[in-house]
Predict the structure of Thymidine kinase.
Amino acid sequence: MAKLYFNYSSMNAGKSTVLLQAAYNYEERGMNTLLLIAAFDDRGGKGRIASRIGLGADADVFNSADNVFDHILRADEAKKVDAVFVDEAQFLTEDQVWQLARVADTLRIPVMCFGLRTDFQGKLFPGSAALLALADNLKEIKTICWCGRKATMVARLDADGKIVEEGDQVVIGGNDKYVSLCRRHWSERKLG
């Protein structure tokens, strides 16, 4: 039985690297993969999944209006798809997560999603909330805080390196940067 997987973490834990390695493992065995990434995430180039360590692969883009089930069905009809990989899965809508569950359940194609669990304010992203509710398998990809403890939270920093507490949930390609912290240091707003 195919499953819907959600691999989640805070920032800079290696989610894209793990995704690209898993996709490579399928491809090395002669299987076909379909990679998806949010349309507005163009840090690695439009339609490209890129890791911080230099790995990358082309991917189909999705936006919030897309029916990802139909997209995957068309791709599968054109060339059998053995596995689907979704990067930046926090940007999926709830409906799209249900569509991915349908891919696993009716098309019997495993769907592996990778994304953030929470935003810089400690709130769930809509896609992450739906994945936490619907995924058959949840896996945390761990990274560490500056203190050495497990980092589970994300802080957004302004251009001066100060923690930002308000603002849009999603900021891509801005001057802000993000840092992963343990819950204690995130709550204390302590950068180390």
Observations:
- Residues 92 and 127 are 5 Å apart (CA to CA).
- The radius of gyration is 17 Å.
